[in-house]
What we know:
The structure holds 2 protein chains of 2 kinds. By secondary structure, chain A is α/β, with parallel strands linked by helices.
Amino acid sequence: MSVSExxxxxxxxxxxxVLVSKLGLDGHDRGAKVVARALRDAGFEVVYLGVHRSPExxxxxxxxxxxxxxxxxxxSGSHLELISDLxxxxxxxxxxxxxxxxxxxxxxxxxxxxxxxxxxxxxxxxPLKKVVEVYEKxxxxxxx
Amino acid sequence: xxNDLSKLREKLNQWVKEVLEPTVKKAPExxxxxxxxxxxxxxxxxxxxxxxxxxxxxxxxxxxxxEYPFTRGVYATMYRGRPWTIRQxxxxxxxxxxxxxxxxxxxxxxxxxxxxxxxxxxxxxxxxNKLAWYEVGKVGVSMPSxxxxxxxxxxxxxxxxxxxxxxxxxAIEVLSMYVAVAESRGVDKAVLRGTVQNDILKEYIARNNxxxxxxxxxxxxxxxxxxxxxxxxxxxxISISGYHFEEAGATPAMEIAFTLADAIEYVRWVVERxxxxxxFASQLSFFFAARTNLFEQVAKFRAARRIWARIMxxxxxxxxxxxxxxxxxxxxxxxxxxxxxxxxxxxRTTLQALAAVLGGTQSLHxxxxxxxxxxxxxxSVKLSIRVQQVLLYESGVIDTIDPLGGAYYIEWxxxxxxxxxxxxxxxxxxLGGMVKAIELGYPQREIARAAYEWQLKVERGExxxxxxxxxxxxxxxxxxxxxxxxxxxxxxxxxxxxLKKERDNSKVSEALDKVRKxxxxxxxxxxxxxxxxxxxxATLGEVSQVLREVWGEWKAPEIY
Lengths: 144, 560
């Protein structure tokens, strides 16, 4: 296989379909919407679930839509418990879909979230270029 | 054009040709074009040619403070007579935590209270609800019953303090709790001073804390307005909000236009339900954001006042000047806080607060520097109050009214924003009013588009943000974090269970049944029924559940 063929096969294999959603009762959706749109503009297929979603609903949609990554935005301070439950549900279903978390996340909680198995935490001010790269990496991991 | 103006034009042209152009040629400016956040191209200099020269008339455009069209301010003496209210939005954890925070804020010089409620309270869910579980006491105080309100106002004089409450979809339930506690202490509801946000339309557009569909929600909101008009004359029955539009991405003109279009819708509904405009309009209040872009923000506030006065006078035929006054609260723009180099936020919020004051705000919340990272601590909130006190006591900005009034640039900008806002208001009217526009997704789409465009400008470096895309430092911000005690949930749920055990349950179900019957009819005011249910110790979640069953729930169109 030539290098270009390898690259071509690789890019075919990477499924750029992602879920973007809010989790919990928090209504601040500016960040989630901007990320959804940036990903769409970068060639991702985006399933946008909007606000007031429970961990159960998110996992159901992720399975149904067969996505390669899940992006969550939380600004209400409930991230540790919500994400902990989400990760537990994913594990119970035998799913290892990378989860990316954005929002108002105190520095000390970034490590906590990673310990829970979160793929990456993106705090306010993260450039969209970086956001897209992280989702690409996540989809790549999932496609391996 | 008068002789003076012709002469000025001649001199200006000469200056441009002989001084300005050669200078720019020799030393290029920082960028080829200077624009405001709204996108207006800004000239090097403004002169009377941009005001009088453009047909501008002082008496028509500005007038005097306390008089139509209120451009210079709503009161005759403004801050010389009455300083703006220092009102920091606060509340977290259980009622005890919030009571302690309020007493602290009052002790360091806050002059009014502003209650933050947790998301379950805002969405009509009791703390023992499954989805509520994660959020109890997180972004505000948990308020499932009148019992909690009693504790929050322990040793706080409800007849003296004014209290603002950020509550919308459950505004009647929560205001009922406040009134019930006040009355139990012998304070008549007629003397209570304060505000309920009660602005459900902006929830569909930007803030997302809605429960029922727009039309029954409008009935609920206008029920509260009509009840307050008759029973609580000192209470602001609504705080029509642009803040959340700005936070969601709206430009300054969009912010005031969507807000005033919402206001038109509320007034229209109440008038159609049979009230004279002057019977309730003086109890409408407003809420805007203050961004760092100082002059355009000042122009925004002034334009909003002028537009509202005209709408009330010309469209709704208001006769009482108080009906035409746009009185507003301001919060500094949370979206402009950065997680990077957080102390820089104090400088930003100071400029934003200055914009609000120069813009004539009636009350002010200054965000704390740590809020892009977490909930603010006592120490950071105190600094926010100190920012306000420095402006009020040290800066001299209160000495004269509308100090920027008459500045050629400010007046030109005020006119520009006004013109653009009118276009948006007219567009919404053309669509059939704000309820219709929301159902069509118009304001939601406009805001999402503006938010994305802003983000792209940040990415391209066209909007410099210190610490984010310029003067960046590699650092992990170190700030003290306010953590919510996980025991809050147990405490609140325990008290809720006790309440349910101790109350007269047959009285509760009777009261809830009356709420249901009132909700089913369209021509009764639901307020007294909800008030009776809350007084009988029905919970917020129980009342809300009844209304959900009658009115259904709103499922938002997903627009991004």
